[in-house]
Amino acid sequence: MATWVSIRLGGARRLFKRDEPSTSAALFLISRRSLHYHKGQPIYTSVTGPCGGSLFSKLFLIKMRTRAPVFDIYCGGSLLAAVQNSKMFDDCKHFVDMPLKLDAEATLANWDTLQAQGPLSDEALRAFVATHFDAPGCELEEHKPLDFDADSTAYAGVHDEQYRDWATKLHKKWPTLTRRVKDLVHSDPARYSLIALPHPFIVPGGRFRELYYWDSFFTIKGLIASKMFATAKGMIHNMQFLVEQYGFVPNGNRIYYLNRSQPPVLAWCVHAYCQATRDAEFAAQLLPTLWKEMAFFENNRVYKEEHWVGHLFRFVVSADGPRPESYREDVESAHHLTEESDKRRLWGDIAAAAESGRDFSARWFESSGPHAGKMSSTRTSQLIPVELNAIMYANYRMMGELCDILSDIDGSKRCAHAADRLKQTIKQVLWNEENGCWFDFDLSTREHSRLFNDTNLFPMFAECVHDGFDGARLCSYLKDTGVLGYPGGLPSSMTPSGQQWDFPNAWAPTTWIAIQGLRACHQYEMAQNIADKWIRKNFNMWRSSGGKMFEKYNVVSPCYKVGAGGGEYDVQEGFGWTNGVVLDLLITYGDTLFWTPGDECECCGGHIQACAAEGQTGQ
């Protein structure tokens, strides 16, 4: 008996026999010939088959993309390779953020003509780019949020005068980080790598000119603290738009990010907003979208072994080439490989590390061999990561609570069943009884990776703790590792790899999750101690830098002029999720945290006032 595969293209659905050898070719031809666009952007083509769509999941990853000409400029092709390999711009992201002056077809036709004339000089290539591309960032404009109140009293409850004044000034930074997509992008989107969003949004800052997925949750927490509910709601609607358009929220709203997502925290955003506003109607609007996003991860990011209670999730990405925004770095990382399939595997694992939001960390690299500790040994898909599974559990839990609000009994039961099965599997595979903590599971070594990463603590915030879990024992583990002994807070890891998500750096999102996780497990003293260090570090760096907030901090040095480092780019200033976390923590701890001016600063051997004065002088 023949098995049929259903292929949906736009509103039409056609059937093909599974046992026909031509089926795969037919799928490809249909996807190429039936080009479907929404306002110039390609629409994904869904492929479903028996067993919940698993028939073609390996070949097509459930979603096939019809390739518009603009993709041959920003996502691959000879023009992208030529510009990025020429080192015309120090940062590869610069080029792929540059809007087109002409339409994509004309640009590619002119490029083909130029190439046909023979080898290109650097001058000819520069002239071509100058003729055909505008400066990055011109597709966006600053926007003053309609719900922004410069005289807001949202932080009046912060008892410490210095911190209260700081919170007020951070609150006033929101308009400087708010962007809206210009009307010309909406009218002619095929000239941009930017995916046009319907509502204004907060950008991180610096080179990050677009909405970033998991950044948005922590930014939204700050917006809620500032009582800017309309702006927060608009950002959630933007992410809803992306899910409805593509089936998931991309890493950011650029077409070159469409092969990957980020930690899926849209349910967290909706849950936090509804908790703050009691807006049940909004929850009802968003729940169908949340189910769609969960389906994407359930279909494309799962891994299961026969003896496991259920499946677990991992970061895994299919890549045809280097990341466009980090093209040269990825080419260099694959320089030792000769087979194209091996290069694509490595590039996929590098993109998967970017999907994790922790790009990069030695956690994703080989620990032995000639490329140990280097991006050239990235193996993200070989790890079952603690945080992704905790996030998915939290999604089920939070969605279940939203279903309860809406009296959706079936949805609530569905969430409870999925959450319970996932919790059991997390306990079975990721919990280490000897250490009293969760660890990544290495599919190659068949062992836990017993290194400290702050992501080990995510299950506490997710409330994914098993019967008999002892929060005090986990605190003992943290003390034993030595991670609590640093003046600026909790380092991301204890591995000094030179990567930005490793020692000695710490980041706002994972610090916030660690604090909230400890609070959820009644470890209030340790949570407040970490919060106090983090707030103090951020504040003193803000003072000594003349009022700057950064994406990451060196928490090991007590010097307030020593910033974080590592990674593929310079430390960025702004900074959306850092500001959001600080504002949320100042609301949480506003009556217990107090700044003292006697902090020692090793660079001058004196007090923070001296360094602050010197820093101000140098501005």
TrEMBL record:
Coiled coil: none annotated. PROSITE patterns: TREHALASE_2 (PS00928). One of its GO terms (molecular function) is alpha,alpha-trehalase activity. The keyword Zinc does not apply. GO terms for biological process: trehalose catabolic process. Its EC number is 3.2.1.28. InterPro entries: 6-hairpin_glycosidase_sf (IPR008928), 6hp_glycosidase-like_sf (IPR012341), Glyco_hydro_37 (IPR001661), Glyco_hydro_37_CS (IPR018232). Keywords: Glycosidase, Hydrolase. It catalyses: alpha,alpha-trehalose + H2O = alpha-D-glucose + beta-D-glucose. Belongs to the glycosyl hydrolase 37 family. This is Trehalase. It comes from Mesorhabditis spiculigera.
